[in-house]
Amino acid sequence: MRKRLIGTVTSDKNSKTRRVEVKRLFQHPKYGKIVRGRTVCHVHDENNDSHQGDTVEIVESRPFSRLKRWELVRVVSAAADLRAAAAKEQELAADESEPEAAEGAAT
């Protein structure tokens, strides 16, 4: 059984290679506090499907190089889609606030 992780692409500068950060929470062994941690995985992306900011699913695989031990399974959500949705929400919010501003100026 191979390990499967979900993380965020932090670098897509190299061809067919991605740097993915997997965030995790764990309890500190001595103090017991819940601590945030991250694991950096270098991932093989054969078709250059993912880009910086994308959330991706990766699976453990044979070594591709000195650092690459993971392979891209799929892009869970693309960062471009999230940015487009956020921009659309901002436009809608701006359109709703414009009539209020015009009413205030007329008074």
TrEMBL record:
GO terms for molecular function: rRNA binding; structural constituent of ribosome. GO terms for cellular component: cytosolic small ribosomal subunit. Pfam families: Ribosomal_S17. The keyword Methyltransferase does not apply. One of its GO terms (biological process) is translation. One of the primary rRNA binding proteins, it binds specifically to the 5'-end of 16S ribosomal RNA. Belongs to the universal ribosomal protein uS17 family. PANTHER family: 40S RIBOSOMAL PROTEIN S11 FAMILY MEMBER (PTHR10744), SMALL RIBOSOMAL SUBUNIT PROTEIN US17M (PTHR10744:SF1). Part of the 30S ribosomal subunit. This is Small ribosomal subunit protein uS17. It comes from Maioricimonas rarisocia. The gene is rpsQ.
